[in-house]
UniProtKB/TrEMBL annotation:
Protein name per its UniProtKB record: Enoyl-CoA hydratase-related protein
Transmembrane stretches, start-end: none
Source superkingdom: Bacteria
Region (Disordered): 255-275
Family stated for the protein in its record: Belongs to the enoyl-CoA hydratase/isomerase family.
Amino acid sequence: MSDSILVEVEDGLAHVTLNRPARLNAVDFEMGRRWRDVAVELTGDPTVTAILLDAAGPAFCAGGDVVAMAEADPGDGSAGEAVTAMARIIHEGILTLVRSSTPIVAAVQGAVAGGGLGLMLCADYIVASDAARFVSKYANIGLTPDLGVSTLLPAAIGQRRALTLLLQDRALTADEALEWGLVNEVVPADQVAARAREVADFWQSGAVAAFGEAKRLVRSGAGRAFAQNLEDEAQTIGERFGTHDARTRIAAFAAASRTPKNDTATTSATRKDHA
């Protein structure tokens, strides 16, 4: 089995680690196939209820390993076809993760460049190190966005800012990425892993299936007609309402709502009456 992406599943949480640190976790052909296979495997496993995505080494992901791809170019025009074929394989993995009902949190350190932005944006919640940096660099080497960047990036930060990042030699600091909406949180580098795990634990300690369906509704809704989204919402909430988990939680909520609460205004008035 390939070790370019490591997978460990424990108590329903799949820990997925990009593992080519010597190449800043840049994706080569083998790693691209591994990405697709891992995505299909984990989202198809009913025992996996959440995914934590991180990376080994000083960077999260430097995008595609264009150096390795260029070195493998025989010069007969077939290299471009191979890159297109590989992009489609990686895209299959991205589409599988984004459309799934499995919530994903990413722990991001160091550099995120090019297609690495697309892999990162598969996550529904992103915790970034205060030392993280985010760049495009596609056009700098004569290439165009792939790995979902042309769709996922403007969905996260808006079209105008996405164009700024893609059409200028602009690098975002972690704080800028937070301000732009590219990431959800920025924490000190030594706290990224722990904070990402806290997010995953929060999902799993609660109604994790409901969190996953909420993620799916939002992700799917971006590309569908409003009427389709409304019908999906109606079907999904009805299905959730009939589950044992929802019935138990609703009963607990109802019981709590019937418990008398201290009314500050009433208490103050009573004290004045006794005064």
